[in-house]
Each structure stands twice: as C-alpha cells, then as structure tokens.
Amino acid sequence: MALWRQVIETFEHEGERRLAERLPLCGELEAVDTALAILPDFLRSFAAQPQLTRLMLQEFSVTSERSAWLREHFAEPVWILLKPLFERLRDEGRLGGAAPDIAYFSMIGWALITFGNADLIHQVAQGDPTSPQWRDQAIDYMIGPVVASGSRRS
Length: 154
Fold this sequence. Notes:
It comes from Novosphingobium piscinae. The protein is mainly alpha-helical.
C-alpha cells in the first residue's frame, strides 16, 4: 500500500496544489470567470495521467482501505477547496440549475470516466483523448453545464 500511496501522492496532489495556489488569485472575479480560469487546468491533471486516473476510478468504485485513503487525501480536500466556488456559481444562477454537489461530482465523474478510459475511447471511436485538441474540447464540454445559466429543465 505504501508504494501505491506514493504514486497517487506524487501525481494527484499536483492538481490540488494548483487549485490551492490559483483560487486566491481569482478572489475578485465573478464565479463563472473563476471557474473558467481554474477548472480547465484542474481537469487537465486527470488527462495528463490516464493510467492514474483509471486507477482512481477503479478504487473509487469499491469500498476498501485504498478508496477510504483516496477519499480522505484527495476527494474531500479537493471538494473542500472547490465547494465555495460551486456555491457561488449556484448563487450567480449557474450550474444549469443543479445543486453544487451534483454539478461538481458530475463534472469529476466525466473527467474520471473520459480520461481514465482513453484506450477504450480510441478503440471504439478512434478519438485521441491524448491529443491536446481532443482533451481541451472534452474539458470545455465538461465545464459547459457548470457555467450554464438557468435551469436545464422546462
């Protein structure tokens, strides 16, 4: 378990570190501008390490010592960092009418599934999730509902 933790800490804390550094710099911006400034870079951290993202996806899907460790050392700290932003987005009429936790975890789920299954996407759809253009288009799509105004339901 020690080696496994070392690998996760080495790569995944980078995204959390960048969030912690960049969020205070966006203090005066509206929530939507903050989201557009920081979320793409954060989601790129999932794309940059597809094997690690896949490992996290697999571990989060079961209850285990590893999933508990991931939750405590990655999922919860990142949610704590981003929760105020998602609450501001809701207060500004964004998130497509969803609750902050629904919007956040849906976005993270998309990132885990998309970037954790790069080989499958390439095999099935001949897409190249490792190319910057494909990656950035996918990230823009993932962020779309987060910055969307109003309710998506009629």
